[in-house]
Amino acid sequence: MTNQNTQIILAAHDDLACALIRTVEAIAGAQPDLLCVGLSAGEDVQAFRGRLVALLNPNQSALILVDLPGGTPWNVASSIASSIASSIALNRAPAVRVVSGVNLSMLLEVALLRQGLDIDQLAQLARQAGIDAITIARPARVAGIEVRE
């Protein structure tokens, strides 16, 4: 199934998820089905889980992008995805995938290029875009002089 209607949900600590969405929309304009949920300091894990589940549309696949592998948003999102995978086997729910390491480049790529991709292709695009965005700058040369900080 292609995912022109796939939800992209960011789940991260504090306000990171919503800040990334605000930044993407400042760059590329409003994006459909792009949602965020933040885990507040001291928040009950079940309350966070409930807020994340509430964002899922039972008629759409969802790509959940999280900040840290092994963190609470990752653990909760992965648990939800596993539960939904059981329902998929019974043809009762669309697919959910979880990708960690969300960054601005990753989010821009998946938000702007998702149309026509299935959920697994979209998850792979997210992963690769995140990896490709990590670079090491080389010292600059200005007028033949190496500039270092």
Assess the beta-strand content as a share of residues: 15-25%
| Number of structural domains | 1
- What's the SSE pattern? EHEHEHEHHEE
- Give the full name of the CATH homologous superfamily: Phosphotransferase system, mannose-type IIA component
* Mean pLDDT over all positions: 91
- Round the Cα radius of gyration to an integer and report it: 17 Å
Overall strand count: 6
Q: Helix amount, in percent? A: 40-55%
- State the major sheet: 4 strands, parallel
Fold-level CATH name: Rossmann fold
Summed up, the helix count is 5
Structural class estimated from helices and strands? alpha/beta
First and last CA, distance:
50 Å
- Counting copies of identical and different chains, the oligomeric state is single chain
**Second rung of CATH, namely the architecture:** 3-Layer(aba) Sandwich
* Low confidence ranges: none
Feature tags:
alpha/beta, Rossmann fold, four-stranded parallel beta sheet, 5 helices, 149 residues, 44% helix
Overview of this protein structure:
Helices cover 44% and strands 19% of the residues. The protein is of the alpha/beta class and 149 residues long. The protein has a single domain (7-147), classed as Rossmann fold. It has a four-stranded parallel sheet with strand order 2-1-3-4, sandwiched between helices. It has a two-stranded antiparallel sheet with strand order 5-6. α1 (16-28) packs across α4.
